[in-house]
Protein 1
Amino acid sequence: MGTETLATGSGRMFRYAFGSLLLLAGMSLLVAHGLEWLDLEPKLSRALQGGAICALGTALGAVPVLVIRRMPLALSDSLLGFGAGVMLAATAFSLIVPGIAAAEKLGMSPFAASGLISLGIMLGAFGLFLVDRKVSGASPEMLNGSVEHPIIPPRIWLFVFAIIAHNIPEGMAVGVSAGGGMPDADSLAMGIALQDVPEGLVIALVLAGAGMSRFKAFLIGAASGLVEPVFALLCAWLVSLAELLLPLGLALAAGAMLLVVTHEIIPESRRHGHDKLASLGLLIGFCLMMVMDTALA
């Protein structure tokens, strides 16, 4: 009887997972047609498409939680390292280097251009640091709604909110590069979408492991990437208003992403002792994103 129940439950979960994939595919087609109907400016449309691809990557990553509850720590740390490598390469080749080039096109000397990008990096990192402080200072009452009957531990919600906050600079990067007409904007969006796949899975698995239903954990994991198309469109619109905002916007996004990688992702990937696997994942992710940014751009 127990075996039959397990088989029935597994079959149901697989059907849920397959149905969710079909639903995501259908929603992607609807969004694509919706973007055409909006008739946005080409740069804004490109930014929104890139942000939507990133959000879809997050949603796809959350699908496996419908089938599995836990992921081996070694694999999780390897995927986190891979994501860190992708983001580091994207920061260097899609944000900082093009930002310096864009500043020089405005008539700045190499020294002034590098100084402007350095200032933007520091401001971007500081801005995200303030967001992190705000999230970390959230009270258990605000996170759970009730202290007397907590459902999910506050630290779990803090983790989820932190990852959602970290999706903001990714959306910024996509929007700034698309709004500025950068040639590698599409490869940047694809690279960030790859990095978002394990991110969505981690959120969903953490929530499911804390006692939330698998389907609800999947919905929250999938929805965590929706901030990316919003900020992609916003930043693309802002960049289109003034030329100086392009290099500065690229630098702000680079600083925020650097802080995410060094302060959160890399330490988390090494927390369970899988340093070598995390480093290998980082190298693979870096090289893959570098190829996408240079050879395939």
Protein 2
Amino acid sequence: MKIIPLSEGAFSIDKTKVFVPFNKEKDDLQQRALGSLLVEIQPFVIVTSKDIILLDTGLGFTNPDGILQIHQNLVDNGINPMEVTKVLMSHLHKDHSGAVAREDKILGGHYISFPNATYYVNKQELQFALEQGKPSYTPDEFSILQSAANVELVEGNGLIDSYIRYETTGAHCPYHMAFWIEENGETIFFGADVAPQLQQMKSRFIAKYDYDGKKCMELRQQWWQQAQDEKWTMLFYHDIKTPYVSF
């Protein structure tokens, strides 16, 4: 399997939940609001023998030409966005779901950004996100998931096409999901915001911003040991230095 990180850049974020671009060479995090965190926004593409799989859809930013950044990042890596066959959504916080759909500024409304892909979304997460709304969620950007023909609403734990496992972990938010893609003896693991950075895997860290910080910490410890024992490759959505690590 081939792993392609699709970094959208570094950002600082504080309690307002606004993602402010951060230049790692020039900016000083200490000059940002007290308590600001520095994170990468980094969806991934996994190319398997069967699929081109997108893991989360990023912030939904566009370049000066109006092209979705995630579309441009795919093209820059030799992949036509129309070739994506599966979109696996860990959860719907705005930094993970911004490019689920695009706004039609001429006709109004939204349309799916990856029309040839099947989107896999936790049914309860979608309901919860629509009810909760801002600042963590932006329903205008993903409400189309309720009616789009190419959306599979899943619950609990399960299997997709016999080689992609998902578990509803909760912890970061009530219906957060993790994914394991397993092919030819290789396992790629995406823990999204329960396992967002390499350093967090190595410490007993409890974050106040998590729905259940203690459970997040316990899952990280469990997965870190399993990854070493079972030789996983772990993907890190918010890691500034380390997109992924293999054992």
Protein 3
Amino acid sequence: MPFDPSQAPIVFGEVLFDCFPDAEVLGGAPFNVAWHLAAFGAGPLFVSRAGEDELGRRIESAMRTRGMTTAGLQRDAVHATGSVQVTLADGEPSYDIVADRAYDFIDADALPASADGALLYHGTLALRGAESASALEQLKTRTDAVFLDVNLRDPWWSREAVIAELDGARWVKLNADELAQLAPAGDGPESRAAALIERHGLDHAYVTLGAEGAFALTADGQRGQIRPAGSVEVVDAVGAGDGFASVLILGLLRDWPLDRTLARAQDVASAIVGRRGATVADDTFYTDFVRTWNGA
């Protein structure tokens, strides 16, 4: 169905806890994106699956506290809630994204009703599970407005599978390393992004460049680029890309010009890295941005 920006966006994919030796931190890129969209007033439908366990109960409680609907959060009595085991050796972290977790088994038969033409966001990690991949394909039959957020995590991805997802997407966000792995050869990131758009029939490609900011290209030849304003104090870089993606989605839903969308996305990402954690519980963090955007 054609894109209908008046419909609430759908966010599909993993929700999990990063389990450190001394703490458990709620996250997962799609969950983070849905959290930000909810806080900005976009009312997303988050589609995922959590275990019938304590971590699953904490996810549902957090969503209700944020004011998010739990209509798309399936519960699983067999598989545990998603987790990433984080270990530290000489101060350096290593990660084990635990397999066969609830978000790998999102049930297509239990998907909630959603509006035709809604923007559908998804990443790549949740596609490692055949059941979840099938559920996503069912959601895709309802819309042609698919936003793919590439997030390559070894060993949980294959080039063939990600290329297939690019063929079904309208917009893609990825970082420079991911672009180099997925795009046709080119003289640099911009030529690779242009080739990616042409090969897969994309409307937009958004490419993040870490501390250098980001750029975007469109199928009709628009180009935008943004860099962080001044020096940015980095407390925790985890989740900055998710905040960036959430504002890109707002720009598509609200028809903001490309340069304005990029600038607002960069401002939010820069603010997130100055805080601990990928999501923010303080409502004023979001309302301050909204007031600025509205010229208040």
